[in-house]
Write a structure and sequence with these properties.
The protein has seven helices and no strands. It is mainly α.
Length: 138
């Protein structure tokens, strides 16, 4: 195996683990059990558990089913999973209206796609946290 192939495999495993961690953190922040997320999404709890542990990588179909119950935008989730390429353009705007500082855009554009995906995932989680905390208490 060449160094490039090993590096690519490590990057794939890292992005898989990052996605698993993001999904688990988001479920916990939404105070959902695997059973509750399963009922809301139609995905079996055992499959959700394997995805969260990084044992399985979710298909786009599964991501679409769990995005809304987790409070995540499909596009951001697909980007974190690597199904979509990050769209860090000159306007510094991401899907969903999230504004990025032009300096951040310039720096991220120099980083590997895996780093861009991780940052997009982190920003998505932070956005979700902000939305949960900005809602008036009932």
């Amino acid at each position: 195996m060449t160094f490039f192939m090993l590096s690519q495999m490590e990057a794939t495993m890292t992005s898989r683990n990052d996605l698993a961690r993001i999904l688990r953190q988001q479920r916990i922040m939404r105070e959902l059990t695997l059973q509750q997320l399963s009922q809301m999404s139609g995905v079996s709890p055992s499959h959700l558990g394997r995805v969260e542990r990084g044992e399985r990588f979710p298909s786009a179909h599964i991501l679409r089913k769990i995005a809304k119950p987790l409070g995540l935008a499909e596009g951001e989730l697909f980007t974190s999973a690597g199904y979509l390429s990050p769209q860090l353009g000159t306007k510094a705007e991401r899907p969903g209206g999230m504004q990025l500082d032009p300096y951040v855009v310039a720096v991220l554009s120099q980083e590997p796609v895996e780093v861009q995906r991780a940052v997009a995932g982190i920003l998505s989680v932070l956005k979700s946290i902000a939305q949960v905390h900005s809602k008036p208490s009932e």
